[in-house]
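Summary for the funding panel

The consortium committed to producing paired sequence-structure records for every protein in the target list. Below we show the first two records in order, beginning with the earlier of the two.
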Amino acid sequence: MKTAIRTGAISAFTALALAATAAMAGTVRPPEGAQMVPTGKGFAIRADDDAVEQLDAVQSAAAAGQIIFHGGPVMTNATGVNVYVIWYGNWSGNTGTTIVPDFLNNLGGSPYFAINTTYYDSANVFIPNKVTLKGQVNDSYSQGTSLSDTKVRTIVSSKISSGVLPKDRNGVYFVLTSKDVNETSGFCTQYCGWHTHATMSSTDIKYSFVGDAARCINSCAAQSTSPNGNAGVDGMISVIAHELEEAATDPDLNAWYFSTGNENADQCAWTFGTQYTTGNGSKANMNLGGRDFLIQQNWIRAASGKCALHL
């Protein structure tokens, strides 16, 4: 789903609930007991009538309050999840082009990403604790500074069809936009990032949008002074983590999610667990590759599931 915006100095769980309410504004409240499914758009919708009976059977068999497997594909390839970054807009001189790769290059094998190894597919194969940054490319405003969801998809598909990036069914393609770029379906007002999938070049491609949190620092970053001296990008990194773990466990929006429609990272959005103070006075909760980061917690799939930073 989309990473909901931060909603002020209130409890993280209250913030998540309020953000979900805002995202649902203008929609009809579903009947009590209605089956809900994720959309990748930061809110859940009522399931189609044809799917309700199947969802009833799946969810009635699951423990209350636990994340549920709905049978869709999961990113369990033995080589792990491959990541491709499209630096969209103007990133010249921005330290983010170093900070983000440092994070991604040290995420695989970490105690944090190990949380995703508690999730499995229909063959009972579990997600490996492996993430590989496979490629990065620049895109200087090929779709302008005002992006729709369709334009984000076009950015990804054009990079694949032109051969600039490979076609990789085990990949997640991130469109990371500079501060001057807007995503008109709700960036900074309803979400900070999102993930989805589409058929491109006859392949199921997983991709994500994450905008520079500097565009709306109070909505999409947890702090205005950050561990790596770039509050916008440090804010983005928590959103990147959010979307990547959801893409791994629920790539086609039909695998792992709660009966509310929340995916694993949605359940823990804007919660950070135990923190420490860095040299510049900012907060962090993990160190990867020598850098401090403040990253949201993720949901451990277990009988006593919970939000955490590690198993």
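The next record, for a separate protein in the list, is shown here:
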Amino acid sequence: MNRLQELMYNEGERLVPYVSHDDAELIRHRSSYAFFHDVIAADLATVKATDREVSVVDLGSGTGYGCSLLSSLPGVHVTGVDIARECRDFANQYYPRTNVDYVTEDLTTFIPGMKAFDYAVSRGVLEHVPNGVKLIAEIKYARRAFIDVPYDEEALNPHHVIMGIREVDFENLPNKEIFYEDLEGNIFDVAHKPPKPNLILVVLSAPDLPKVSELFVFPLPAVRDTKLEEASKATSGGRRYDVKRDELLEEARRAIRETEVVADIGCGIVPMNYFRPSLHFMIEPWKEYYDILSYRHQGDKSVFVLRLGAIEALRSFADKSIDSIFLLDVIEHLPKDMGFEVISECERVAREQIVIFTPLGFMPQHMDSGETDGWGLSGSSVQEHLSGWTPEDFGEAWAFYVSEDFHQVDFKRDSLEKAYGAFFAIRNFDSVGVAAAPEAFSELRRPLPSELEAQRLKVECAELKAHVAGLESAYNGLLNSRSVRLTRGVKKALRGSRQ
């Protein structure tokens, strides 16, 4: 996990899909949101279509995974609310959707003052919030609210401030229905309550809506496929964020994922420094810049400096082979048709994210022959601006962070007659599950040294656990032995005689 993912994980309290936890937890999480999704979809199927968006709020949206699933509902706008700023950053990085907003708010103040949404959902959140169960009565909704929390949980989780939640805690809520989710992710109504529920789910409905228990045949099976995730990709995409000049770099930094493998194209002598990847391809065609990079990073086995042009470099990479691709102050130096070709190749190669930074529109930059560049080097011939770019040049899948007056000096640090804007264009790619095995496949392989070491440690750990279990058994046997019982009896008799 990268630093943001570890922060989100929060000692296991948040699911980071396809990164943390096991498949069972992901299935439970997905099944809850699929239930919310399917109830809302059933409602919308019976309502006459209007131009008004259907509003949905996710109270405690965490990573944004649930919001992304709900975003596939027709005509909806989803608002994800969470107290932690890292949740907003993570959701914007990993689950950006054109019809989803992520906001940072404390539910203890947000819920009492919230406006009415058509639908409100909350999964596994209110047990973390002081008086969280009582707050349910203050949730404002026009159609339905869905809230699930752990069922009759013992006081074992230090992150939960409310335990032992049962049906009686919801008895005063109007127009409610109770449902349950088991550890496999199956959803049950009251008539089919499982022996050991994992979650209790309360649905509050407007009086004119049909009961949820009448919409489906229960129990509902757990959702093990990824069809809903695939459907949500139809709304995958970014938004335009207009920010102040002094906020642009920080806002973009928050939107940039920390990944393992980076292609830094046209980086000059100043490669990207948002984070340190495990493998950093620094790609630079100008020899003087290439030589400086090679000298600076000699001996650093995490850095490969390649003297290649953008197209040549990208074509040498396989599909989805690089986590992140950066083009910072690069694309404006290419003819427009070549720039579009570079973007297309980036979209083919990138696994997780593409980050482009460029002036907003055409910003003239000309250097006379023999003039040094902004670094005092000989690269003036490759510093000419050949094209101008705007957010309209990119597709709907991109997010934009725009400052209208970012550039106020030229490459010589001389003041410009007029300020020029700049923007980051960021394309995120959704996380994917484990790839299917190829048609032709062989189990024959040699284990890596790291795998052999991991297996050895597993065996040692199992042996140690067995040894500890043996010691515990021997200790318990000693406590119950005749001699210890006799000693206890003697001590008790002596205490009695002293009294």
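Regarding this second record: The chain has a mean pLDDT of 92. The domain at 3-235 is CATH 3.40.50.150 (Rossmann fold).
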